[in-house]
Amino acid sequence: MALSSPGPATGTAAPGSPAAPRPTRGLLPLLLAGNTAMYALYIGVAGMLLALQIEDIDPAGKVANFGLVAGISAIFATVFNPVAGALSDRSGRRNPWILAGGLLAVPVMLLLGSVHTILLVTIAWCLGQAVMNIYQAAITSVVPDRVPMAARGKASAAVGLGLPIGSTIGALVGAAFSEHYRTGYLVFGAIVAATAVLFTTCAREERMPPKPPLPVRQQLAAFGNALGNHDFRWAFIGRALLVLGYFAVAGFQLYILKDHTDLPAGLSAEEAVAILMPVNSVAMVVSTVLGGWLSDRFDRRKLFVGASAALAAVALVIPAVSSSWPAMLAFSVVNGLGFGCYMAVDTALVTMVLPKAEDAARDMGVLNVANAGPQIVAPFVASLIVSLSGGYTALFLVAAVLSVLGALAVRPIRSVR
Which residue ranges does UniProt annotate as crossing the membrane (predicted)? Predict the structure, then answer.
């Protein structure tokens, strides 16, 4: 899974021209379904079933092993996503790639559930990341391909809602199959496969002109040029710090509930995840909508970005000072409010500090390195902190410091209030 930010499209064609996107009837609900299925698998598999399987294989080394598997697979996902996107660009089609990725999820999930060593789990989950990134890269490109500029806001909302809804479904399904995770893997694979068939059957597409691949030298030059801009560089640093802090904790949620939290009698860690995830998702949806609206109304992006990052830091301190179940509930709510508002307003802020309007899509791609890179590093950092400190309190505090630094990083930005 690679958390990404939607970027503005460039080079839009005039309405009615061959290159202009033509909306598909019912496309927005299909986009919502497609993204919901994807995030359900990412959250349910990577956030719960994979952690349970690794714990079954090696209970004593579960933290280090989970960090290793999550980190290696994140590297694989980050490399494979642009490769899969480039292949679908060159073919001029998205639906075949969506369908192929979705259908391949079933045998790969079957393989993942049948292996019994950490090495084979790593290989199988890397294959899972490969097929899901084929799916993700293609479905992410549907909005700029097929949605007119006037409807991009609605389409982005449909895509964005896939994360909280999919997270909730993933947590509930994962908890339901926590005792039979091999069956759970197949259920998630079937959800993605069925959604891929539904999407490609109902959302018909016209072949787009193939896009030539961008040379590696040009990609590296673009990265350097974008970060050479003062305001964009600070926005990049702030995003990277906050995402690192967020995913260092989020990836280990199940183990935190098992080994750090004093759960009420009769409540398992898996059931606790199924409670916390919907709570967090609702808070995230509320703060995303409210934060975006308020930042527009008052025209103060830096204020809301800094405040929401600081709120995320406050959230992380709560479970550091208390291991109680109410503390985890409070953390889930406050963290959802902070992270949801941050992602909504910071994305708007970034679009205002892009170095050149004509390179907007390219530079938003550079920003996605600040999303994907920390997700690679986070499992390694988190497992190292937990292993050295002997618990999760230090992890919460380090993540809180990273969030504070992320809040402070927006202060040097000059061109946005």
Answer: 27-51, 63-84, 96-112, 155-177, 183-203, 236-257, 272-294, 303-321, 327-354, 366-386, 392-410
